[in-house]
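User: I'm writing a tutorial on reading structure tokens. Could you give me a worked example: one chain, its sequence, then its tokens, then a sentence or two explaining what the tokens reveal?
Assistant: Sure. Here is the example chain.
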Amino acid sequence: MGRHFLFRLAFAGALLPGLAAAAPAPDTLTDSLRINGQKVPVESVSDTPLDGIYHVELKGGESFYANADGSYFVVGDLYHNEGDKLTNLSEQEKNQERAEALADVPDSERAIYRGVDEPRATVTVFTDTSCPYCTRLHESIPELNERGIEVDYLAFPRGGMQSAAARVMQQAWCSDNVSEALSQAFDDETLSAGAGCDNPVAKQHQLGLELGVKGTPAIVLPDGTMVPGFVPPERLAAMLGLDS
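And here are its predicted structure tokens:
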């Protein structure tokens, strides 16, 4: 833990007496929170384990902690320190939100790669066909499937929706067999399908931004934990508890 983290904790601790004394009124935060005199769009306000402190999430995805009337903010993660275990409660909440959001994505909008046997675990991967480490992960899918890991792809063109990769992935999702088309794209083959059909690439890209994807591949475990970058099959299996 660095000095910046310790400063956050010290700052939060200095505020706690005043925050705890405030009357809980999260509706005030939802309806009339202002920063620098400007009303801010609040998505949700939820309780925390600390009396008088609320978790505020804005519609743009930013979040922070505030007292009941929004006169004090604490920016950073909230930790639970008990015994010999330090738990990042903020990250736990983000994981749950990711898992719930991905559960709403239907199979019909995913590119699904599974082996012949029933999968023991499923990971969701935000991918980009122009990304070298995404290609490396794609090449490891047969081994992942052998280990009982299903891989579900969602599109995340790193260069945005105007990039060449975005068009290629739109072509893949417009193909009769999305998984087969994506494999061809990873092999640098030209896809024959057009990109003008009603496809979910832009929606998936936006979802990735909202869930905190900053690069590809971004692997999301079943509990919502996000693992950035390429992970070797044996290590991913161990993360999923499948190493035995």
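What the tokens reveal: The two ends are 33 Å apart (CA to CA). Residues 50 and 207 are 30 Å apart (CA to CA).
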